From TrEMBL:
Its EC number is 1.14.-.-. The keyword Transferase does not apply. One of its GO terms (molecular function) is oxidoreductase activity, acting on paired donors, with incorporation or reduction of molecular oxygen. It comes from Candidatus Filomicrobium marinum. It holds the Pfam family Rhodanese. This is tRNA uridine(34) hydroxylase. GO terms for biological process: tRNA modification.
Length: 313
């Protein structure tokens, strides 16, 4: 398979739509991605598709054309950002029960969803003290960046979000609720959940944090920190520039880079792992890092498993 050239387009996409033959679509998209040297992950379910992939400009355009040709996907949500090198190691197209796992039956963003708010109008909405602002991402993501005044539900999985809503929000009080996530997909289901439960005034950031960081100038921004992403860039800042975080070589949680240059795996473990991880796990991480260093010295791209956090997306 041909290797993608330097100068990579990373595309995050999703669409809630009925897909009748997921297996056939999986085979079609996987073959196209293999042929075009596209890497990343696509998830397919009867409710739609979701994923993040990376490849050359021409390759991504061909994939985009193929997805738009799928019935119901002509207006697929599609956000792009640049990468100097390929941030994924392989291509995966997987069949799932849900394209973003909440685990609540009867939630269908195709029929009921909150009100979209463009990035240009987001600051006004969330600056109103009457607005309850909720970060629907997981705790490890919130830890490195979020919006001013945002509530962190402290979830470790999106499956925990419905329980948090039951315990912390009351539709009877008629609150105004605004929610956000990385690219918008989690908020589709989160707002659908609240609407189903009787909440009337529910909003979500169109295009997610990534679109906000792309469109809103830093000097006008209410975003604090960086945005975790599920690839080897690890985090992004305003203008979608690579941030200053790496992944711990042991637990693979984001940690600050000692040099300020983010992306990839840190050469050492985080403080928690250094004090709490068992010696065998530390030795495995150290051996993996030696293999990475050797591969880089040879000009090769050493394969590493996806971050363990990725399964919680």
């Amino acid at each position: 398979m041909a290797q993608p050239a330097s100068g990579i387009t990373v595309a995050a996409l999703y669409k809630f739509t009925a897909i009748e033959d997921c297996s056939a679509l999986r085979d079609q998209l996987f073959a196209l991605c293999e042929r075009e040297a596209i890497r990343g992950t696509l998830l397919l379910a009867s409710e739609g598709l979701n994923g993040t992939v990376a490849g050359t400009r021409q390759a991504i355009d061909r994939l985009f054309a193929a997805i738009r040709a799928v019935p119901g996907c002509d207006d697929v949500e599609w956000k792009e950002s640049p990468a100097a090198t390929q941030p994924f190691k392989r291509m995966k197209v997987r069949l799932k029960r849900e394209i973003v796992t909440m685990g609540v039956e009867g939630i269908d963003p195709r029929t009921t969803v909150g009100t979209y708010v463009d990035p240009a109008d987001w600051n006004e909405l969330i600056s109103d003290p009457e607005t309850i602002l909720i970060d629907t991402r997981n705790d490890y993501e919130v830890a490195i960046g979020t919006f001013t005044r945002a509530i962190n539900p402290m979830t470790q999985s999106f499956r925990e979000f419905p329980e948090w809503v039951r315990e912390n929000l009351d539709a009877g009080k008629k609150p105004r609720v605004a929610m956000f996530c990385t690219g918008g997909i989690r908020c589709e289901k989160a707002t659908a959940l609240l609407k189903q439960q009787g909440f009337e005034e529910v909003y979500h950031l169109k295009g997610g944090i990534l679109k906000y960081l792309e469109d809103v100038p830093a000097d006008e921004s209410l975003w604090k920190g960086e945005c975790f992403v599920f690839d080897e860039r690890v985090s992004l800042r305003h203008e979608l520039k690579v941030g200053s975080y790496q992944l711990c070589s042991v637990c693979r949680e984001p940690i600050s880079s000692p040099t300020g240059q983010g992306g990839g795996y840190a050469t050492k473990e985080c403080e928690k792992c250094a004090t709490e991880a068992d010696p065998e796990r530390l030795n495995r991480a150290a051996d993996r890092q030696r293999q990475i260093d050797l591969a880089e010295a040879r000009g090769q791209n050493h394969f590493q498993p996806a971050p363990s956090n990725a399964r919680r997306r």
